[in-house]
Amino acid sequence: MAVAIKAELRDRRRGQILDAAWAIARESGIATVGLREVARRAGMRAPSLYEYFDSKRAIYDAMFAEGYDEFLLLAPSNNDPRPPRRLAVAWLRRYFAFCRTDVARYQLLFQPAVPGFHPSDESMLKAQRALKMLDEFLDRAGITRPGASEIWTALVTGMVNQQVANDPAGNRWERLAEESVEMFFNHYSHEDQG
Predict the structure, then answer these.
(1) How far apart are CA 188 and CA 103, in angstroms?
(2) For a surface tag, which of 79, 119, 122, 142 has the fewest beta carbons within 10 Å of its beta carbon?
(3) For the segment 95-139, what is each residue's pLDDT rounded down to a tens digit?
(4) SS3 2
(5) Is pLDDT of 75 > 90?
(6) Are domains 2-54 and 66-188 of this chain identical in fold?
(7) Looking at residue 112, what DSSP letter applies?
(8) CB–CB of 123/64 below 8 Å?
(9) Average pLDDT over the chain, rounded to whole?
């Protein structure tokens, strides 16, 4: 029982540290997270952070894993009865909202915004799971040509990058979600005439 309580307290403290790091990232940018300020906001001294995370990179890694846990919840369900194109449009709109509502999280997951940060292998498994889910969705939609998932990723990430960078409060690129999905599906639903 004491071990379980100690583990719960440790998890709670780690959560407070991550909450502090996210708050800093959201206020000042993902690359500005500093250990002293994280510790201050979490109600401890900087050296005490090392009882919970062995480095600043480990904090970023935990943030990355947490962000991907949230991202994976966006994936279309295998049981959703809507046609693949409608599912793709709905997913793309959720992706826009996911990125726009938390730019710091978007930067950590999808941009090289933190110099020198590379997620751990364990955290990268979550990112790879997201790509696997995309491949499975495209397979169910009948899109099996090599390179399709890479084109989809470039298309949607490029659109979101443009939206966040150039029209964060508007919908200049987001309003093109349906047209972009149609373009992608039309291209991949026909054999090359080459």
Answers:
(1) 31
(2) 79
(3) 999 999 999 999 999 999 999 999 999 999 999 999 999 999 999
(4) helix
(5) no
(6) no
(7) -
(8) yes
(9) 92
